[in-house]
Design brief:
With 146 residues, the protein is α+β, with helices and mostly antiparallel strands. The protein has one domain (21-145): Metal Binding Protein, Guanine Nucleotide Exchange Factor, Chain A. It is 16% helix and 27% strand. The protein contains 3 helices and 9 strands. Strands 3-4-8-7-6-5 form a 6-stranded antiparallel β-sheet, with no helix packed on it. Strands 2-1-9 form a 3-stranded antiparallel β-sheet, with no helix packed on it. Strand 1 (59-63) and strand 2 form a beta hairpin. The protein is globular and about 40 Å long. The structure holds zinc ion. Zinc ion binds next to loops.
């Protein structure tokens, strides 16, 4: 994949064709029921229950579905929400966002750019430079510790 190609698509706000495509049955086989519920059915794990909400270990958080690098532990902060929270993605273009108006709320959904896995939502009340808080389900992530 050319890095330039994927970034172009994201900067223009277009939905980039996912590189990893699998059938529903394949995802079901590959993922645990909870992972499947979150990343393929846009589910949300209960707060304070996931594997990483309170993790402070150094490392790289990868997409549980395709292994793409999504977030860096250096950008993780304690939001008090019970979900892993990050100020920014690991790199521009590794995630993309879509408007989500489900449950009578106006939210912005965060998805893996490579496989379209639902990761969580992004809010604009974060402490970082861009003011963003990426609120991500543990079930969508796999921490590769350094
Ligand atoms: Zn992915």
């Amino acid at each position: 994949m050319s890095k330039r190609g994927s970034q172009q698509g994201d900067q223009q706000g277009n939905v980039v064709e996912p590189e990893v495509r699998k059938s529903d049955a394949e995802w079901r086989r590959q993922l645990t029921p909870e992972q499947y519920h979150v990343v393929r059915k846009k589910g949300t794990e209960a707060p304070f229950t996931g594997a990483y909400w309170n993790t402070k270990d150094d490392g790289t958080y990868r997409c549980v579905a395709c292994g793409s690098e999504l977030f860096d532990a250096a950008d993780k902060f304690d939001s008090g929400t019970g979900w892993p929270s990050f100020t920014a993605p690991a790199a521009a273009g590794c995630v993309h966002t879509e408007a989500d108006n489900s449950f009578f709320m106006r939210r912005t959904e965060v998805l893996c750019s490579r496989c379209e896995a639902h990761l969580g939502h992004v809010f604009d009340d974060g402490p970082g430079r861009g003011g963003q808080r990426y609120c991500i389900n543990s079930a969508a992530l796999n921490l590769e510790r350094r």
